[in-house]
TrEMBL record:
<feature type="binding site">
    <location>
        <position position="132"/>
    </location>
    <ligand>
        <name>FAD</name>
    </ligand>
</feature>
<feature type="domain" description="Glucose-methanol-choline oxidoreductase N-terminal">
    <location>
        <begin position="293"/>
        <end position="307"/>
    </location>
</feature>
<feature type="binding site">
    <location>
        <begin position="85"/>
        <end position="86"/>
    </location>
    <ligand>
        <name>FAD</name>
    </ligand>
</feature>
<keyword id="KW-1133">Transmembrane helix</keyword>
<dbReference type="Pfam" id="PF05199">
    <property type="entry name" value="GMC_oxred_C"/>
</dbReference>
<comment type="similarity">
    <text>Belongs to the GMC oxidoreductase family.</text>
</comment>
<dbReference type="InterPro" id="IPR007867">
    <property type="entry name" value="GMC_OxRtase_C"/>
</dbReference>
<keyword id="KW-0285">Flavoprotein</keyword>
<protein>
    <recommendedName>
        <fullName>Glucose-methanol-choline oxidoreductase N-terminal domain-containing protein</fullName>
    </recommendedName>
</protein>
<keyword id="KW-0732">Signal</keyword>
<dbReference type="InterPro" id="IPR012132">
    <property type="entry name" value="GMC_OxRdtase"/>
</dbReference>
<feature type="transmembrane region" description="Helical">
    <location>
        <begin position="7"/>
        <end position="26"/>
    </location>
</feature>
<dbReference type="GO" id="GO:0016614">
    <property type="term" value="F:oxidoreductase activity, acting on CH-OH group of donors"/>
</dbReference>
<dbReference type="Pfam" id="PF00732">
    <property type="entry name" value="GMC_oxred_N"/>
</dbReference>
<keyword id="KW-1015">Disulfide bond</keyword>
<keyword id="KW-0274">FAD</keyword>
<dbReference type="InterPro" id="IPR000172">
    <property type="entry name" value="GMC_OxRdtase_N"/>
</dbReference>
Length: 557
């Protein structure tokens, strides 16, 4: 995402606008002070190298991410829990722990070690996965908004809405804050209202049509809180978290010696970073729970021999259980939008305001401080002794759903290698129509009075926006032009989901069909994205399923 921005900024500045742009540049704002107090969860987090070759637990959770951490914290109050996280700990990592580090975290990524693991879908869109304790909640934009009512009806999960609300509230008390709007976010709020995205719902965590300020997992100093911080509410002597632990497969066994008896998950095999193999085994009545996300959970099922029989056989993977829809019905909500160089200093802001339209699109915004680098060895451009920074303001739309679906397949039998993913953006024409609706709404906002301060004087005495990258088509009434803009500028907002969808791979209680003691608790089970942003729902889901499991086992004792 940052590379094209930097390219356009340099190109833009070098050709035409060096003088004016440098006059808009500002020194980098000081970093907010960070707390040096260590979170209490670090007391039960250890490198996987320190774990025994074999150990026993009531619940083994694969993935210490957005759903996995609240799930583990909840279960630990009644049972012995192991969390296996393939990445490290976010605490102490400056980029991860601050709003300012958001772009750097996504761009300074590598194949095997970085907190954000990059991948590019076969659609050609760059994307990223969380690879750190806290998962994607430790690398995202921090926006928090509950699911829409339709999600609970369509998701296929057996919801108890009383427990759903209790679970949301538990998360919100711990890590959710009310953001303070500054220049850009305030202007976008006002622009949305001028563009007819009403009513104004003020600050709200609920999903309602109109314009609102949502919650944030960044506090007033810009410090990030993630799912990892929910581990502070675990019972310490009942939980262990292994970091840098790559789970390679689920261990399965027949429940009896009779032919055709059901398989049961009995544990997992994982490796530490030295390559040493470990076995974690579940006790009687325990479970293996996958919370590895929409990429990791279907990948691990396939590597464990759970998936379409012909496909697994083509890889030489012994087929444990034929489940044809593993890796299918994979979705990603396409994002389109515009970015402008602001003529006035702007704060660094991630998503805080959202416009929930009735035409199938959500409108969000961000402003980022980006370093200006003059072309090397230029004799025409003054090179300052200290770095200068530009503020780039972005308006973006994300469609609901989506209806277009893709799939995932293995690229390797090495679990560390990203699978091959295709999302098939806009293969369903309804998605394209929704994108056109959303981009037209962005045009309405740009024409609002609230945006006047972000225009610059042009050569002819008028005022225009100074775009970074493609601008919206001039004739926004032309469907073909708007559809072409959506296709040309499509990118991700990192809300991909599916691959182990309810009704196809898991039942309404998230149990894998045909395998005992195996559940999936993450976004891979969603066939539709919840509300404007999935983070709140995934955090809630972890707490919710933990409470439901404890309740079930209490009833059947």
């Amino acid at each position: 995402m940052a590379r094209p921005i930097c390219f356009w900024l340099r190109y833009f500045a070098f050709l035409m606008f060096i003088g004016p742009i440098v006059s808009y540049a500002l020194p980098r704002p000081p970093r907010p002070p960070q707390s040096h107090q260590d979170p209490s969860y670090l007391k039960f987090v250890s490198n996987a190298t320190e774990f025994p070759s074999e150990d026993y637990y009531d619940y083994i959770i694969v993935g210490g991410g957005t759903a996995g951490c609240p799930l583990a914290a909840t279960l630990s109050h009644s049972y012995k829990v192991l969390v296996l996280e393939r990445g490290g700990v976010p605490h102490g990592e400056t980029n991860l722990m601050s709003q300012e580090g958001f772009l750097a975290t996504l761009t300074e990524a590598d194949t095997y070690d970085s907190p954000a693991q990059p991948f590019t879908s076969e659609d050609g869109v760059q994307n990223a996965r969380g690879r750190v304790l806290g998962g994607s909640s430790a690398i995202n934009a921090g926006f928090y908004s509950r699911a829409d009512d339709e999600f609970y009806k369509k998701s296929g999960v057996n919801w108890d809405l009383r427990v759903v609300n209790q679970s949301y509230e538990w998360v919100e008390r711990a890590i959710v804050f009310r953001p303070e709007l500054k220049t850009w976010q305030s202007a976008v709020r006002d622009g949305l209202l001028e563009a007819g995205v009403d009513p104004y719902n003020g600050f709200s965590l609920d999903h309602s049509v109109g314009t609102k300020i949502g919650g944030s997992t960044f506090d007033s100093t810009g410090k990030r809180y993630s799912a990892a911080d929910l581990l502070n509410y675990a019972k310490p002597f009942n939980i262990k978290v292994a970091v840098y632990a790559n789970v390679e497969r689920i261990l399965l066994a027949s429940s009896s010696s009779y032919m055709g008896s059901r398989l049961s998950a009995i544990g997992v095999v994982y490796r530490d970073h030295t390559g040493r193999c470990h076995h974690a085994i579940v006790r009687e009545h325990g479970e293996v729970i996958l919370s590895a996300g929409a990429i990791g959970s279907p990948q691990l099922l396939l590597l464990s021999g759970i998936g379409p029989r012909p496909y697994l056989s083509s890889w030489g993977i012994p087929v444990a259980h034929h489940l044809p829809f593993v890796g299918q019905f994979l979705f990603d909500n396409p994002r389109s939008g515009v970015s402008i160089v602001a003529p006035i200093p702007l704060e660094h802001s991630l998503i805080q305001v959202v416009g929930i339209t009735e035409s199938g699109a959500y409108i969000e915004a961000a402003s980022n401080v980006i370093p200006f680098v003059s072309p090397a060895r230029s004799i025409f451009i003054w090179t300052p002794s200290s770095p200068l920074y530009l503020t780039v303001a972005t308006l973006m739309e994300k469609i609901i759903g989506p209806l277009s679906s893709g799939s995932l397949r293995l690229a390797s039998t090495d679990v560390r290698v990203n699978p091959i993913v295709r999302f098939n953006y806009f293969s369903n024409p309804v998605d394209l129509k929704r994108c056109v609706n959303g981009t037209r709404k962005i045009g309405d906002i740009l024409r609002s009075r609230s945006m006047e301060d972000f225009k610059v004087r042009n050569w002819f005495g008028g005022h225009d926006f100074r775009f970074v990258g493609p601008a919206l088509p001039v004739d926004q009434a032309d469907n073909h032009l708007m559809e072409d803009f959506c296709r040309r500028t499509v990118s991700t907002i990192w809300h991909y989901h599916g691959g182990c969808v309810v009704g196809k791979v898991v039942d309404g209680d998230l149990r894998v069909f045909g395998i005992d003691a195996l559940r999936i608790v993450d976004g891979s089970t969603f066939g539709v994205s919840p509300g404007t942003n999935p983070q709140a729902t995934l955090l809630m889901l972890g707490r919710y399923v933990g409470l439901k499991i404890i309740g079930e086992r209490t009833r059947y004792r």
